[in-house]
């Protein structure tokens, strides 16, 4: 598989640059069959926000993907999901995610908890290397992206991932209408 690339960004093989990744991301990449095609690009950490990064590096929002963490409870049991959606859309938490998690009131995980439990930096949370037991919901439009720009677990870099590779992530569930 060829290394994912985007114009204007210097792509490096992610497997060869663990220093640009959160430890859990580097470990997960080593066991991911699609990792050979995944690149990492170093960015200004002040530009980790998707909109700022897209503007500064001339990357279309439709090429980005955001990973948001959602939690809710049902009968005292907490249910957590990572939702991967295109950056030019928003996860439908109040309907689709609520139904899929079968919870009364889903909400975005608070930043301090998301950072602490994922082991990743805010602005760099990614579906690669999340804790076991969390569901991974992938909007059906994400695998259609030629090269998706996603978090790397840290603010100073991003991963470039061929869209279809998300289907190979452990536990990935493709969901039509996850985002609107």
UniProtKB/TrEMBL annotation:
Residues 45-167 form the YbaK/aminoacyl-tRNA synthetase-associated domain. Coiled coil: none annotated. Pfam families: tRNA_edit. Signal peptide: none annotated. This is YbaK/EbsC family protein. It comes from Nocardioides panacisoli.
